Amino acid sequence: MSDRERSIGTGRLVTGVVWAVLLLGLWLWGREVTDVRHGISAPTTGDMAAAGRPPVADLPPPAEPLTGALPQRLDIPGLGVQAPVVARGLDSQGAVDPPPYDQPAVVGWYAAGTKPGEVGTALMVGHVDTETRPAVFYRLSALQPGAVVRVVRVDGKVAEFTVDDVKVLSRDHFDAQQAYGVRKSGRAELRLITCGGTFDRTTRSYTANVVVSAYLTGTGL
């Protein structure tokens, strides 16, 4: 059965499972910090062979972090993505609340966390597909180290990030530190997350998450 054939209710069930997993990761990540400090014709997401490739050797140096400002838009030139960003929190069941299911072109920013451009890891999430078509992060796994991601902020500045890592993390062995933890202290980092792997018809969920890591390398107006 293709994604096109799934019902809206099933799609929402899958989405709920996905973001419940993300919440678990956030809880574990927050605990560690405290203690020490959907595809329409196929169940894969984008170019799965691209995920996990070794980083290129000549990535640019990190830029000085910015002061906090709310994000307005996410641009990924290599994927043709220009998406509005909305602040999201937790839903009534305690899971990370993604953008509304009927707004597949919108990216959600975890507003209880870091603002894009600040020191730390800013988290953005998006749907991979709907029951009828690809969504904003459908080709996220096709990104490679060196790709540019831009966040337009309400202060008029554009925080420009460079991708340094793309991973597909299995749900069975989900590593919260890899997904949410700071890669290098002192940097402003950005994490983009969506569904990945294959669609498991038994559990009615995807088998993995695609996690793109990027760090601030420039700013503009």
TrEMBL record:
Source superkingdom: Bacteria
Annotated TM spans: 12-30
SUPFAM superfamilies tied to this protein: Sortase
Pfam families: Sortase (PF04203)
Region Disordered, residue ranges: 44-71
One Gene Ontology MF term: hydrolase activity
Keyword Transmembrane helix tagged: yes
InterPro entries the record matches: Sortase (IPR005754), Sortase_dom-sf (IPR023365), Sortase_F (IPR042001)
Keywords, alphabetical: Hydrolase, Membrane, Transmembrane, Transmembrane helix
Name by which UniProt lists this protein: Class F sortase
Species name: Streptomyces spinoverrucosus
